[in-house]
Structures are given as structure tokens and as C-alpha cells.
Amino acid sequence: MFDSLNGEGLLIHHWDTDGICSACLLLSHLNGRKIKNITPELGNYFLTNEELENCSIFDYIIVADMALPEEQILKISKNAQVFIFDHHLQNEIKQVFHHNPIIKSDKPNDYPSASWIVNDYLKNPVNLFAILGIVGDHERRILKNLKFKEIINKFCVKNNLTFDNLLRMVYLLDSNYKLGYKKSVENTPHILIQIESPSEILNNELWNKNLSILDNEIELQLRQPSDENSKTIFKKISTKYNIISTVTRRIAWESGKNAIVVNTGYFSDKDQIYMRCAKNAEQMIRRGKQLGFKCGGKKEVLGAILPKDKTDDFVKELKDFLNN
Fold first, then answer.
1. ∠ at Cα 105 (101, 108), nearest 5°?
2. Which among 22, 15, 136, 129 is positioned nearest to 83, based on CA atoms?
3. pLDDT tens readout for residues 45-87
4. Most CB contacts within 10 A, which of 45, 163, 195, 252?
5. Within the chain, which residue ranges are assigned CATH 3.90.1640.30?
6. CATH of segment(s) 224-323
């Protein structure tokens, strides 16, 4: 498919390990072509008006690990060929090339990351970047998926790695976006293309310094008071760092309960909401979109950005959904 592409391309990818590794795989495959990669303004699951306008100069656009709003995809497709590689819950956008097996499958556990979907589409052998995207999105919980537990274990044995090594690499790669370093996020796929050993990730001095800062901030936010019942933990935090997904994971996975976290400190005029749950979150993702919020996620995850004066009402709806 990519063989017929001409002109200048743009790769838009998520800022986390899965998005970075998906970008690395795609850029490596497209080596020699004129293609630029960007991530949206950190924290946004949509393109700003300026970002949308900048898309108009490209001949083709690839979106990896991001469920951008359908109206934005249709807008950028007026001037460019658009290709999407994703694993989030979304409707199929038939006007573009939309490769998301989860849309047509009743087995989402077979597609644990965008990096795995990209790697499979490119017919690459199992490699570090396909694996890191999976570990990035699921951490230790992926070991409950017997199929991918076996794949990851075989990869680790073959490459003299441990699962803890993989997890550490994920935290290091994620450190740039969590600290708000957008340019560093965009440069990371190019660094990964050049590495010769996983040790180059593990020993990256800057990323290790980043991680020390983040570890302290995450522990501070986890100590903030929570509202808890038998099913759900709700926590409100205020931090300038993009750590809401990490805090929510820690609360949900360590407690075994549903978790809702609101961060009031990342945007000046909006709040971030993140939810992890044992129920299918699709109903509430649709509800958030109906209310006009920037909202998306996967079966077990909801992420939303919404006006501060709408937060309390939506949190109440989320609590009612989880507790009933």
C-alpha cells in the first residue's frame, strides 16, 4: 500500500510508548520518504485549529494510536490520503484507510496495542517496539493474557531481557510526555530507529533524570485523599504533569476497584478525567462525546477533557455508571 505514496507525508501519533513505538515502526518502514512526525498538543486527543491548518500542506497523513474526532479526519482527508492504525473504540471511518481490527472483532485482547497492529500489518517479525507498545498499554496485566504472556516471555528469553526491563523502558519512554516535553516526544521515534541495543534506552541519562522527577510527583499525588466505596475510588489531583493515566492505573490495579481521577492542574480552563473500570466503558465514552467533550478510550478506559464547570456532573454520571 505505501509503495504507491508520493509527495510529502505527515505522521500523527500518540505521545505514549505505544504511539512512539508505532511511529518508530512506520518511519522505519517508510525510510527514504519525505515524512514528518508530530504528536498533538500534549493532553489533547484532537488537533487544534493550527494543527489542522498545517495538515493541508501534506499529500498523505498517517494517524497512529490516536482516535482523532471523525470530523477532523474527514477534514484532513479533503487534501490528503489518510491512513489510520489504531486499537481504540471508535466507529469505522470508511472514507479513509482505517485499520483497526477491534472495530470488527469480538476479541479485543488479540489486539493489545497499536504497535502490535502496525507490526502485524507490516509483516515484521516480533521485535522490541511491537512488544514495548503492548507493555506500555497494559503493564503487568498483560501477563494475564496467556497468548501475549507467551510471546513476551519468548522474546525476553531470546534477547536476555526481563519483564521488569521492558517495564522500565516504558517508564523511560513515557517520561518526556509526562513532563510536557513535546519536541522530545517527537524526536524519540528517530532515536529508537538508531539504537542497537535495549540498553541504550535503559541507560539514557536524560530519561532517567526525568523518571526521578516523575516518581516523586506520582507518589505525592497518590497520597491525596480519596472518596472510596466498595466498588469505586475517586481522587482529585492538581498537577502540571501529564500523569493522570499513571495515577489512575496505580489506584485501579493496586486496589482491584474501579478508579476515576480528575486532574484540575494540567489545563487552565479545562479538566482531565481518566477512568479505569471492570465494566465496558463504551457507553460512557459515547455519552461524553454526546455532551460535546473530547472523549475516547478502550473497553476498560475512558479519557476526557472537558470544561471545568461540567466536571462535577460528568463525574457523577461516571460514578452512577460504575456503582449500579
1. 80
2. 22
3. 899 999 999 999 999 999 999 999 999 999 999 999 999 999 9
4. 252
5. 2-202
6. 3.10.310.40
